[in-house]
Amino acid sequence: MSCTRVLIFAFGVHFMLACSPEPPQPTDMLNGKSAGGPAEIFVASGAGYRKPIDEIKFLFEKKTAIAVNCIYGNMRQITTQAKTSGKVAVIIGDVKFLNKMDISFKKETAIGIGRLVIAARKNLPLNGIDDLTKSEFDRIIVPDSKKAIYGRAAFEAMTKRNIYKQIQPRLITVQTVPQVTSYLAGGTAQAGFMNRADFLSLNPNKFKAIDIDRSLYESIIIEAALTEHATDAAEQYMRFLQSDAAKGVFDRFGLGLE
After folding, report:
1. Which candidate, 254, 94, 124, places its Cα nearest to that of 184?
2. DSSP 3-state of 254
3. Per residue in 185-230, pLDDT tens?
4. What does the alpha-carbon distance between residue 60 and residue 198 come to, in Å, rounded to a whole number?
5. For residue 79, how far is the Cα from the chain centroid?
6. pLDDT by 10-residue block (mean), the chain, 258 residues
7. What does DSSP say about strands 88-94 and 220-226: parallel, antiparallel, or unpaired?
8. Domain with CATH 3.40.190.10 in the chain
9. What number of CA atoms fall less than 13 Å from residue 37's CA on the CB side?
C-alpha cells in the first residue's frame, strides 16, 4: 500500500471554460462560429500552461477578433473533454500524452519545451533535488505522475537520484501543477514540483526555484495539435502560435524551444 497522501478537493472543478452569457448552439460551435456572431474556437491545454496560453489568447483575439474559449486540466481530463465535447479544435500538451490520446490529429506543431523545477521558500536549505531528503522538508507537493506531465517528470527525477523511496511518505499528490503552486503559497508544504512557467505566479521575494537537471527526466516537448473539429479560425490560431509574438510569451514563461 502506497504511503503517498492525496489531497481531496471539496470543490473539484477541474475545467475552467470561458463562456459568453448566452452560449452558442453546439452546431454553431462546431462550425467555428457563435450564433449570429464572429468566429470562435475551443482550445484545451494542460493546466500548467494556463498563464502563457491566456496571454496568447488575449493577443490573438485582439489581432483577429476570433474568440478563444480555453479549457484547462491535467492531460487525462483534457482527453476526456476533447473526446466527449465534440468542440475542441486545438489541444496543447506534452507530445507523449498527445500520442496516447487515441485522437486523430490533422496537424501537430512543437511550440515549447517544459522545464521541471522544485520551488520552496527562500529561507529553506534547497539547492538541489537531493536536499528534499533533509528534515526541513516533511511535506512535498507533487502532481499525480499518472495524470500530469510534471508529476511523471518529478517521479523520474526522484527515482534516478535514488531518493524516491526515502521521501515517498512525505509526498502529497495533487491533480495539476497550479494546485502545487496554490498549496505551496498557502503553506501546506515546504517544497513542490512544478514547471518554470507556473513558478512565476509565486512571490519572488518569498520563493525560489531550483532547476532539475534535464537528464533526470524525459524531455517535455509541448505541441499544439489540430483535431478533426479544426476550422479556418483554428488554423489561424495555430499559425499565430508560431509567430514572434507567441514565441516571446513562451520564452518569457520559461517554455521557449531554445
Report:
1. 124
2. coil
3. 999 999 999 999 889 889 999 999 999 999 999 999 999 999 988 8
4. 21
5. 13
6. 41 36 35 54 91 96 96 85 88 89 88 95 96 96 91 96 97 93 93 93 94 95 92 95 96 89
7. antiparallel
8. 26-114+220-252, 116-211
9. 15
Q: Cβ(72)–Cβ(45) under 8 Å?
A: yes
Q: Specify the pLDDT at position 229.
A: 87
CATH architecture of the region 26-114+220-252: 3-Layer(aba) Sandwich (3.40)
Question: How far apart are alpha carbons 244 and 249 in whole angstroms?
Answer: 9
Q: Residue 184 and residue 3: Cα distance in Å, rounded? A: 20
**Residues 226, 232, 234, 237: is their CA dihedral positive or negative?**
positive
Would you tell me how many other CB atoms lie within 10 Å of the CB of residue 76? 17
The whole model's pTM is what?
Answer: 0.75
Q: 162: which 3 cell numbers?
A: 535514488
DSSP strand E in the chain: where? 5-6, 40-46, 67-73, 88-94, 107-114, 116-121, 140-143, 171-174, 191-195, 207-211, 220-226
The model's pLDDT over 71-98, given as tens digits with 9 standing for 90+, comes to 998 878 888 888 888 889 999 999 988 8
Q: How far apart are CA 109 and CA 226, in angstroms?
A: 9
> Are the beta carbons of 138 and 171 closer than 8 angstroms?
no
Assign domain 116-211 one CATH number from 3.40.720.10, 3.40.50.1820, 3.40.190.10, 3.90.1150.10: 3.40.190.10
Q: Which among 130, 185, 127, 178 has a CA at the least distance from the CA of 151? A: 178
